[in-house]
Specification:
Helices cover 7% and strands 34% of the residues. It is mainly beta. It has a domain of 116 residues: Immunoglobulin-like, CATH 2.60.40. The strands form 10 sheets. Strands 19, 33, 35, 38, 41, 42 and 43 form a 7-stranded mixed β-sheet that branches. It is globular and about 70 Å long.
């Protein structure tokens, strides 16, 4: 008996030692993967379901209102009174929106009055954030937020909810896209197979495609919208896509279905349009759609069913387009696809099983992956360093002007729940630094020291001066990146345009020493179909290493 016990003890020791070694190997491998994570806010007070970066570099955080009290207090004179609120009908003095400054880490509560649950948004040409729809008393609401500098705070720098006009239809789970003339199209929503415009200069546009793309689990919600450089809209819902002439109000083309099941809410894949580039005269547009739940998972609440692991890629401007299918390193549902200044895409957040919906997913996908579109099929994906914080339903990811990706939110519960659950409501905000921000690249990292003007017209020249420690080799890329509205695994209005830039000319050679200063002249995008009017982050990229961005307003 003693021998048996001793043998068992030895065996347990061997197993424990083996697990210890495996754990250390796993940690070591994680440390070797590219990228770096940091928690920038321990408690934001709210879980951000919708997130957007303003032209001042501040970040708008926005959740729903009828969720009970948050952990961020409003000023006493800004309490919200809504007798229909299911949790706090006698008044709510906590914030459900906030403005975060990633530089100072300061959080300022903002007041929002009507329910923004599963709403949509887009920046207007003057930098104002348009926020549309929601649930209950927010179903047809329009809201505006005009940001101000964090150094010049004004009491009026807060949400304004318009009494008129109202949306023509209820917009719950809709998608917004800014158009070449600076107006915004608002597409879809639950039980709303239509589109409308802000300002409301055009009549409501029937869009029966959304009803046709719907199935029993409503996978036509939060459709993926991409403005193509020919001025038409690529609209993807469920597993189908069409080319919409929104001016004439009819479908020009039906694209072939994407294999692999539904991709939109609640199946929760994600999508980007790859960067438009002057080398193609801006006329080649490629769309990528990645991940999503398997068919029926949401309907039957099969939260342990593995998510889809495929990406589809299609040249939407090709006369005879076909989907090219690729395999991701991980199955992923609720992932966010973020274009970074190099033209690559970081796929981040989400889960490896289940679907969108309250407590409908498991197995968090902690590792982001890098999608490198210019590599051959089979070599495009690179696994990146993992976070330790699960980012499940209602999480977001946004590119910041310093090149980091800000990750916020995650609340897979109907209310805020902080304990005794597998995935508690998450109030921490993280920043992920891609490998291009690593210290060993500092000597080739450009610093933009001068932009000739902060406002530029279509086709006009823009002079940019940068400093760098080591001499430049080859060209300096200049890229315009929009600031999208991120929610529910899709960044509405996300766009990158790589513009034509002259060879860099050293301008301080006679002085000697470092840093070296170079000047390039670049040409702004050709027209609003290539890049709608508004504020863009302008990055200079040297040998795959980007500068911090300068904000430039593109004007008609």
């Amino acid at each position: 008996m003693r021998k048996t016990a001793a043998a068992a003890a030895v065996l347990l020791g061997v197993v424990a030692h083996g697990l210890f070694i495996l754990l250390h190997v796993a940690v070591a491998r994680a440390q070797q993967l590219p990228g770096k994570w940091e928690v920038v806010v321990e408690d934001a007070g709210i879980a951000s379901m919708h997130t957007a970066v303003t032209r001042f570099g501040t970040v708008v955080l926005l959740d729903r209102t009828d969720i009970g009290p948050s952990r961020l207090l409003l000023p006493a004179d800004q309490c919200r009174l809504d007798p229909t609120d299911r949790i706090l009908p006698r008044g709510d003095c906590t914030a459900h929106s906030a403005l975060f400054d990633p530089v100072s880490h300061h959080l300022r509560p903002l007041s929002i009055l009507t329910d923004t649950w599963c709403s949509s948004g887009q920046f207007l040409p003057d930098g104002t954030l348009l926020q549309t729809g929601g649930d209950l008393d927010g179903l047809r609401k329009l809201r505006l937020f005009s940001p101000c500098s964090p150094d010049d705070y004004q009491p009026t720098c807060d949400w304004v909810e318009l009494a008129s006009p109202l949306l023509s239809a209820g917009r719950w789970y809709a998608t917004n896209q800014i158009l070449p003339n600076g107006h915004v199209i608002i597409v879809g929503g639950r039980s709303s197979p239509t589109a409308e415009f802000y300002p409301p200069t055009k009549p409501l546009l029937p869009f029966p495609f959304l009803a046709e793309a719907e199935d029993a689990q409503m996978d036509n919600l939060y459709p993926f919208l991409h403005l193509l450089p020919d001025g038409h809209l690529f609209v993807f819902a469920n597993s189908r896509a069409v080319l919409l002439d929104y001016e004439a109000g009819h479908i020009i083309r039906n694209f072939p279905p994407l294999p692999g099941g539904p991709r939109n809410y609640p199946s929760a894949g994600s999508s980007v349009m790859l960067p438009l580039t002057f080398a193609d005269n801006y006329m080649r547009a490629e769309i990528v759609v990645c991940g999503g739940a398997q068919y029926g998972v949401f309907l039957h609440q099969e939260r342990e069913t593995p998510a889809g692991s495929t990406c589809g890629r299609i040249i939407a401007t090709d006369p005879d387009p076909v989907w090219e299918i690729e395999e991701m390193p991980f199955p992923r549902v609720m992932g966010d696809m973020v274009i970074v200044p190099t033209g690559e895409v970081v796929i981040i957040n989400g889960a490896q099983a289940g679907s969108q919906g309250f407590e409908m997913a498991t197995r968090p996908c902690l590792n982001p992956v890098l999608y490198r579109p210019n590599e051959p099929v089979g070599l495009r994906f690179m696994t990146l360093a993992p976070t330790t914080i699960p980012r499940m339903y209602h999480s977001t990811a946004n590119l910041c002007p310093d090149g980091r990706i800000l990750v916020a939110g995650s609340n897979p519960h109907y209310f805020y729940v902080f304990e005794n659950v597998e995935f508690p409501t998450e109030l921490r905000i993280e920043a992920f630094s891609p490998d291009y921000l690593a210290q060993d690249k500092d000597k080739i990292r450009p610093t933009v020291v001068k932009v000739e003007q902060d406002k530029v017209g279509y086709g006009e020249e823009l002079e940019v001066e940068v400093e760098v420690e080591l001499p430049m080799v080859g060209s300096l890329d200049v890229a315009f990146l929009s600031a999208p509205f991120a929610t529910h695994s899709f960044s509405q209005g996300q766009r990158m345009v790589r513009v034509n830039a002259s060879p860099p000319v050293e301008v301080n050679a006679a002085a000697g020493g470092t840093p070296l200063r170079y000047r390039v002249r670049c040409t702004a995008p050709a027209d609003g179909r290539v890049a709608p009017p508004g504020y863009y982050m302008v990055f200079a990229v040297n040998q795959g290493v980007p500068s911090a961005a300068r904000w430039v307003q593109l004007v008609v």
